Amino acid sequence: MKKTTPFGEIEVLDAHTHFFSRRFFTTLINQSPALSQESDPIARVGERTGWMMPPDDPATLAGIWRDELDKHQIAAAMMMASVPTDEDSIAAAVAAVPDRIIGGFFLDPTKPDAEARAKRALDDLGLRVVCLFPAMFHFSMAECEGARAVVALASERPGTAIFVHCGALSVGVRKKLGLLSKFDMRYSNPLDIYKLAAESPKANFIVPHFGAGMFREALMLADLCPNVFLDTSSSNKWMNYEATPTDLPTVFQQALRVVGHERLLFGSDSSFFPRGWVADVFTAQLEALLKIGASEEQAQAIFGGNLKRLFGL
Fold first, then answer.
1. Among 199, 233, 283, 313, which residue's beta carbon has the most beta carbons within 10 A?
2. Do 254 and 244 contact (CB within 8 A), yes or no?
3. Any residues with CB less than 8 A from the CB of 106 and at least 6 apart, and which?
4. Which helix (H) or strand (E) holds 172?
């Protein structure tokens, strides 16, 4: 499946989407005393957010996503279960639509069972991406033994990756539901990944959102470590934090100059329905690459070729 663009026919693979399963929402409900007391808490969440609540069966949600990807001519997407311990939901989705969904899962590496959970997810459930959120779970990539163990697992498994969220972290659904987000931004620096990335050249690392406000540090990390990829996802409103005003074409131009087109991964950060796949994000990135005069080869790589190569698809 290919998408028609000014760069020609491109096979688009999205490196960053979220699989908001029924368990995702029940996990959040259990964190809210008020919602937990509702007679129909799932319906109440739907009212508060304006979102479609997912069906009980994750395979059914996978089918909805397959139709959405078809609608936008998207060949495949990396979808991550977005709360810890939801590996089974995304694994069911991958099993239902194996040629369209690349499975990722949240992991808290500070938990004593983290290594065992990661091994089961990678070896038994067919998932490919371990998603680590240092600020969310209050750990340092440079010092956490659980993170080190997970990276070692990925090093031994070609076609897998370690996704590490850095920079500014905001979870919109938690705000909508009035849930506190006790994140610790001291653990958000991409350079904290350097030691593990340098010591584990066979492990692949993905830093999303161009570093989400730590663009300079993300570029430094990727420049020093050829096993680090940057994803381009979301509205990238972190650009508002830059001391010198910047825009998306400038960000792409600098990333191409420092990292090169072989390690940039297009992502949309799509997550919920009825919004579905966020076409505006794709359009903005396409226009940015056109504006800076990117080549067809560069566009083909960024919008899909690099993700295919990373996962050996």
1. 233
2. no
3. 80, 81, 82, 83, 84, 86, 131, 133
4. helix 172-176
Going by C-alpha positions, the residue among 184, 189, 93, 89 that lies closest to residue 136 is 184
Sketch the domain layout of the chain as residue ranges. 3-311
In the predicted structure, residue 284 carries a pLDDT above the cut 90: yes
CA 172 from centre of chain: 15
Residue 161 is predicted with a pLDDT of 98
pLDDT number for residue 37: 87
Compute how many other C-beta atoms are within 10 angstroms of the C-beta atom of residue 51: 18
CB 21 within 8 A of CB 61: yes
User: Is pLDDT above 90 for 24?
Assistant: yes
* Rounded CA separation 114/235 (Å): 31
Q: Backbone phi, then psi, for 246, in 5-degree steps? A: -140, 170
Residue with tokens 């919004």: 275
Pair 147, 220: CB distance under 8 Å: no
